[in-house]
Design brief:
Holliday junction resolvase RusA (Prophage-encoded endonuclease), endonuclease activity, alpha+beta, 4-stranded mixed β-sheet, hydrolase, endonuclease, 126 residues, 6 strands
């Protein structure tokens, strides 16, 4: 498999630390925040435009390189990865568990004035 590169615009929002509590039939339920849900929706729409075909049916290595424009308030890498994996699920990847993504890496750069984005590189798992 040749490496595949996909790009997602904007800064990912935490799907883990930004949950809110709502009541459903009088019972409290934890749901994703509006900002996290909006980012996931936008990321999935972008992936659908970039990805043609069915989700991959084999394990891959995922490298996420984040470009941020400001070094202040950098997000946690694990929160970025959670958001990316949630966005990839069922579009690019069959699932986001360790069977399908046994290895992943995260790197970032801070470039003042840059448009924030995530560059995803998928390659064959070894």
């Amino acid at each position: 498999m040749n490496p595949i590169t996909l790009t997602l615009k904007g800064r990912p929002r935490s799907t883990k630390n930004s949950r809110k509590i709502i009541r459903v039939n009088g019972k409290p339920r934890s749901v994703m925040s509006d900002s996290a849900a909006a980012w996931i929706t936008s990321a999935r729409a972008s992936l659908k435009k970039q990805w043609k075909g069915r989700p991959l049916q084999h394990a891959i290595h995922l490298h996420v390189h984040a470009v941020f424009c400001d070094r202040h308030s950098l997000p946690d890498p694990d929160n970025c990865m959670n958001a990316v994996l949630d966005a990839l699920k069922s579009i690019v990847l069959r699932d986001d568990n360790l069977t399908w993504v046994p290895s992943f890496a995260f790197s970032h750069e801070v470039t003042p004035g840059a448009k924030e984005c995530l560059v995803l590189t998928l390659s064959e798992a070894v």
